[in-house]
Amino acid sequence: MITPTSDTPEAGTVRLVDYLAGELARAGVTHVFGVGGANIEDLYDAVHREGTVRCVVAKHEFSAATMADGYARTTRRLGVVAATSGGGAMNLVPGLAEAYASRVPVLALVGQPPTGQAGHGAFQDSSGKGGSFDVAEVFTPVSRFCAWVEDADSLMELLPQAVAAARADPPGPAVLLLPKDVQQAQIRLPGRSNAPTPGVPMPTPSAPRLDASTLTAVSNILREADRVLVIAGEGVAAADAHAELAELARNLGAWVAVTPDAKDVFDNRDPRFAGVAGVMGHANVEDCLRRADVCLLVGTRLPLLARGGLDRALAATEVVCLGPEPPFVSGTALRGGLRDALRAVTGRLPPRPPDCPQHAGPLPAPMPNPVSRAPGRIVPYTQAIAAVEAALPSSAHVFVDAGNAGASAVHHLPAPRHGRFVVAVGMGGMGYTFGAGIGAALATGRRTYVLAGDGSFFMHGMEVHTAVEYDAPVTFVIFNNNAHAMCAVREEFLQGGIRSDDLFGRTDLAAGVAAAFPSLDVTGADDAAQLRRALLRSNTSGGPAFVAVDCDPREIPPFLPFQSFAPATDSTERPGSKENSDERGVVHVG
Fold first, then answer.
1. Rounded to 5 degrees, what are φ and ψ at 297?
2. For a Cys-Cys bond, which of 327, 334, 493, 546 suits 321, CB 3.0-4.6 Å?
3. Which conformational region is residue 336 in: left (phi greater than 0), alpha (psi within -120 to 50 degrees), or beta?
4. pTM for this one?
5. Closest CA relative to residue 475, chosen from 449, 445, 441
6. C-alpha separations of 360 from 271, 284, 383 in Å
């Protein structure tokens, strides 16, 4: 039985939270992710009563925010996270910071103590009054829009403003701070017209018109170029511009490279595919860039992770950029909606596409690795990633976490043909994938792979419990080297020796997870063949699975800053370049 939270309501009125829940459903939202609490419980009650939107309760608010993030990235809908005041609100900050940095549309609904208690010593008061800190000042730097809902009537204006800000160009998080008494207040339902259909993505706000003179200049540059290297970014996926990118590449006869967070925006098996650009990428991209007349950036500003090792070649090449934001490198930028820009430029190119010049393709980087001293059955990353590739469904989503395992996956694992390949490089927070993968799986119903190291698992891996509770089709693949191994590699080669605090005692993750979740399909894989079999089995089930494989903490991943740790031999030089890694200098990242 539900106890009423206010006096008998006036006829024709509803609680503000009931109105809010209905508006979320009308906007096409299908899931709200979060963790409950006294100052947000009325919203959860309203969503439950509304019945269209599903509430998913996470174990931690950071993971709830990343669930909304993963939901948004795979559906192109608005992700929604709801959390209570105090520590619950503060736990949202790193997740919203990732969404801000990676341009992901998320709406955060954050409960607050009742308005009348502000500044009077209320538990979890963050109104900025009476010596408390102002929570709005915390959220403002990691959001596109942040506002207190001071009274019931103001929500009518603030909610559409928040949604519009989250979906604008560039997109990102919007935050509404909801005092408990305002949530419970009665409001009269406004008239409705042009209601969106539940389950259908909201339309993206209209992009600004393309500048005609810049469009002409860009088209002329590309038309006159003999060889073009396209570097495509995550903006292509956000704009659903895969087909437009492929058509432009064909008309240009161009090579196509991708940024580390955008492996899925171009077919990795296409003969034009040059590889991944930047510090986790392939030497062939630099080779193609040196041979190109023009480098065309599409849906990327080319941040450091994507341009590491390429700066000299970029400085000697004309750069053109298509996208809503200016690039981090000098060049001619055609600002505006990405799909519009791609179509407009393609329409001005000659009708006969030239052939794509020969290139080496995304050959794996040769990395020096010592003989393993780790006890037990150790599986090299290359073998483990090959097992994942052999089992990965073409329609699956892949979420890759930070660290050595992540760098290996970005470098070696081709993106699925019809799914997302997500790497959270905005903030690079460890443990992001556990929530994000669950959000994506619940939103789309597709098998979703989470690839993470043991360090990431120890941070937010107990979201496995959420996957079990909601029967999410997620396969968690944990590369366990019993270490913060990327830190250990840096310590060994840059700081004179590995500190013991980044090396852990051996943990049998599979045994521990199996004991905690008896209904979960759990495998401790001793070799790549067993790993592959476990993954294939998980593909046929409807729910979650967990596979752990032991790796060597001393194995050096394919990460450009670490190539300088190798002896200077011909095998460690980039093909087509006379510079070895020492001459290029170490790229400092993280």
1. -90, 130
2. 327
3. left
4. 0.91
5. 449
6. 10, 6, 22
